[in-house]
Amino acid sequence: MSASLQRGLNVWREVLDAPTASFFSSCVHCGMCADACLFYTETGDPQFTPIHKLKPMQRFWRQEYTLLGRLAKVVGLSEPVTDEELEQWSRLVYDSCTLCGRCSMVCPVGNDLTYMIRKMREGMAVSGHSPEDLVGAVTRTVELGSPMGAKWSTVEAQIRHVEADTGYKVPVDQEGAEYMVIMSAMEVINYPEFLGSLARIFHQAGVTWTLSHEAFEATNAGIQIGVSDLAKEIVSRIVNAAEKLKVKAVISPECGHAFTALRWEGPNLIGRPFKFEVIHILEVLDKLRAEGRLKTDGKLEQTPMTFHDPCQIVRRGGVVQQPRNLLKLVAADLREMTDHGVMNWCCGGGGGVSANERAEELKFKAFKRKKTQLEELGVNVMVTACANCRTTMEDGIEHYGMNVEVKSLTEMVAEHLAEE
Ligand code: SF4
Ligand code: SF4
Fold it and tell me: How far is CA 256 from CA 77, 297, 390, in A?
């Protein structure tokens, strides 16, 4: 057995906890999780059944922690986990899982398959069976501060552009501001309009906010690849900067996994509660709306539109009603998809899939689910609140030659701000 495989199996020994044991023991093999997973529904390939993706770890758990499993291993009825097997499973655990959580919603015995896939990735990453592109993204985050290689100088250039464009100052390192804003790598590199939208909205609402030059990146590549130590390091940067600036809250941007990593997993990763709140940008905007501080004018009239619920923000994050409240302000004709809200279908690119080049063909196959949803509605505009969903859907729309524009909800609100 290779040393790296030994390390990976040791990680599984550490992370296989009571909930995982109970999930493995209680599976009734009903197959309902298969019909909830877009990699299965769009390919019909049984290897993409969520519980099947966990088979090597399930066998390892039996061999280590159950009497029958131990006996079976001793008499040669249960094979040890090998590097070859994990390399094969890497395609199932990384390329065909976005950690969207839809399978966990339908399991009749309450198995949280997403939770288990996260644990499986922990052992896979340490044993050297995670995709090369995700290893690169994590390395860039640790060494440069961002998975796409963006540095603070990139953000500074964006700040200069936003200030010239809006006429409003973008505050940096302002101690005592109410909110500290972080951005995803996608927003820094691909969607610079996001920062400008925040500057305009916060100016109108009279919000005090700041960026930190020590922690501008929200994306947590450590969570995506499945290495808790790295995830902790990335979260710690944000925590240290926010506590140094004494802000009341950190605003998680339009990025699903950033929200999960910081709001739900962050305190557990660093081993203590934060001294600030973590709040998603849609929650902030909806709060401003409810307080009468967000004033919009006019609606996008000319076309029907729909909202794509980002899995980590809506299903796993609980931010369900806020985007709909905001859309009522700016959309004249909003049409909901058949499966929307907490049961919406993933874009197909979350959980590191969009950053994983070798998964591209599969990602486009999975996108057929979103394509069908859009065609059923006949809309030409899809609004969302996750930059990774946005990029994945723009790629899918281009790949299938569709005529649908993808918009950011925050940017759409900013486009309809009432004139002062
Ligand atoms: S988390 Fe989503 S993508 Fe992953 S197995 Fe479950 S349904 Fe499929
Ligand atoms: S839905 Fe739950 S019980 Fe059914 S096969 Fe999947 S994990 Fe097992």
Answer: 42, 28, 11
Beta-carbon contacts of 210 under 8 Å, excluding residues fewer than 6 positions away, are 171, 172, 173, 174, 177, 179, 180, 181, 245, 247
Helices 113-126 and 55-65, axial angle in degrees (round to 10): 80
Kindly give the distance from the C-alpha atom of residue 331 to the centroid of ligand 1, in angstroms, as a whole number.
31
A 10 A CB-CB count for 265 gives 20
Measuring CA to CA, which residue among 251, 101, 124 is closest to residue 177?
Answer: 251
Residues with Cβ within 6 A of ligand 1? 36-37, 39, 50, 53, 97-103, 113-114, 117, 346
- Decide: 179 and 248 in contact? Cβ < 8 Å: yes
- Distance of alpha carbon 150 from alpha carbon 188, whole angstroms: 7
> Ligand 2 centre and the CA of 22: distance in Å?
12
Between CA 326 and CA 284 the distance in angstroms is 11
Strand order in the sheet with 209-210: 209-210, 179-181, 249-252, 277-280
Within 10 angstroms of residue 1's Cβ, the number of other Cβ atoms is 10
For 323-358, the pLDDT digits (tens) are 999 999 999 999 999 999 999 999 999 999 999 999
pLDDT band at 212 (very low <50, low <70, confident <90, very high): very high
**CA-closest residue to ligand 1 atom 3:** 97
Look up residue 354 and give its amino acid.
S
Residues in the chain: 420
Residue 76 has pLDDT above 70, yes or no: yes
Ligand lying closest to the C-alpha of residue 106: 2
Percent with pLDDT over 90 in the chain: 82
Element (DSSP H or E) covering residue 251: strand 249-252
| C-alpha span between 324 and 327 (Å, rounded) | 5
Q: What is the pLDDT of residues 141-190, one digit of tens each?
A: 878 777 777 788 999 999 999 999 999 999 999 999 999 999 988 888 88
Q: What are phi and psi of 4, to 5 degrees?
A: -70, -40
Q: Is 286 exposed, middle or buried (CB count within 10 Å of its CB: 0-12, 13-18, 19+)?
A: buried
Task: Give me the torsion for CA of 173, 174, 177, 182, rounded to 10°.
Answer: -20
